[in-house]
Amino acid sequence: xxxxxxxxxxxxxxxxxxxxxxxxxxxxxxxxxxxxxxxxxxxxxxxxxxxxxxxxxxxxxxxxxxxxxxxxxxxxxxxxxxxxxxxxxxxxxxxxxxxxxxxxxxxxxxxxxxxxxxxxx
Length: 121
Ligand code: FES
Description:
Helix content is about 0%, strand content about 40%. The chain is built from no helices and eleven strands.
């Protein structure tokens, strides 16, 4: 059964601004993840490029490119759509691994699933 895990306050995320980092278990492995706000909505993904499975931020929690419309991998410049995580440009092969989130009453939560579990459980 899915659980909703507190991630951050709504006010911590601004359109095309810095991400909030968190960690979870992805198929039993500890993984870095991040949440961003884009055009008002919150999205979350594993912090793992689909080109080479490494973290993408060029500075801590900076994922948006200068236009504020793409999530960019610092290593070779792969660009992903913030709403879907799909690869749009560069050497990425597919997309980012998306994590379900919800926002209610000023709080953002991520959702556990078969793939995503709470760390330390
Ligand atoms: S590792 Fe991300 S573009 Fe190559």
